[in-house]
């Protein structure tokens, strides 16, 4: 199976209680956190728009039109995937343990469509080399830390 490294910003949790506290800090109450598939995704669209307004050539009005939820059927032309908070890890990879091998946060790059730091690559960071601007990375982390103060930047290898 092919794998790809993802650049993510978030926190690592080592227990179900830590996961519940993290979600609560984002205004979402969860009853269980023992299965990553049961955890809700939380939109970080406004944070994403704030960051993209600073690091991209697009105006906020243009960004509102091209940042889309990929559950939507309206995906034509250049689109940027909506940034969502979720557990990011590989439950199918042998040797990966939940939750310690997961980052609870947002993807800064994506495989099929650009998300944030890969906006200059029309198909995201998954199709060839994608240069990451260090200043843009620091700006992204600064904005994400407004919602997740302990957020750091990680790479995660996911099998597709």
What's a concise summary of this model?
The strands form 2 sheets. A 5-stranded antiparallel sheet has the order 2-5-6-1-7. It has a two-stranded parallel sheet with strand order 3-4.
Strand count? 7
Radius of gyration: 15 Å
Largest sheet: 5 strands, antiparallel
- Taken together, the total number of domains comes to 1
| Helix/strand order, N-terminal first | EHEHHEEEEHE
Order of strands in the sheet with most strands: 2-5-6-1-7
Number of helices in the DSSP assignment: 4
Shape: globular
Strand content: 15-25%
- Termini Cα gap: 6 Å
- What integer is the average pLDDT? 85
Which residue ranges are poorly predicted, with pLDDT under 50 across at least 5 consecutive positions?
none
What structural class should be given to the helix and strand makeup? alpha+beta
Helix content: 25-40%
Outline the structure in words:
There is one protein chain. Helix content is 25%, strand content 21%. The chain is α+β, with helices and mostly antiparallel strands and 160 residues long. The chain has a five-stranded antiparallel β-sheet with strand order 2-5-6-1-7. It is globular, with a radius of gyration of 15 Å. The relative contact order is 0.26. The model has no long low-confidence stretch (mean pLDDT 85).
Helix and strand layout, with pairings?
Blueprint: E1 3-11, H1 16-25, E2 42-43, H2 45-55, H3 60-66, E3 67-68, E4 80-81, E5 84-88, E6 103-107, H4 134-145, E7 152-159
Parallel strand pairs: 3-4
Antiparallel strand pairs: 1-6, 1-7, 2-5, 5-6
Helix pairs in contact: 2-4
């Amino acid at each position: 199976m092919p794998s790809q490294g993802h650049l993510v910003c978030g926190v690592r949790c080592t227990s179900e209680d830590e996961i519940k506290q993290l979600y609560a800090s984002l205004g979402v109450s969860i009853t269980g956190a023992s299965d990553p598939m049961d955890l809700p995704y939380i939109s970080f669209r406004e944070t994403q728009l704030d960051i993209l307004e600073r690091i991209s050539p697009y105006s906020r009005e243009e960004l509102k039109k091209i940042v889309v939820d990929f559950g939507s059927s309206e995906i034509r032309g250049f689109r940027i995937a909506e940034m969502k908070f979720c557990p990011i890890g590989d439950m199918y990879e042998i040797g990966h343990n939940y939750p310690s091998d997961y980052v609870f946060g947002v993807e800064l790059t994506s495989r099929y469509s650009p998300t944030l730091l890969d906006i200059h690559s029309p198909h995201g960071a998954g199709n060839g080399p994608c240069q990451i601007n260090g200043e843009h990375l620091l700006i992204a982390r600064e904005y994400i830390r407004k919602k997740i103060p302990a957020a750091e930047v990680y790479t995660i290898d996911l099998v597709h």
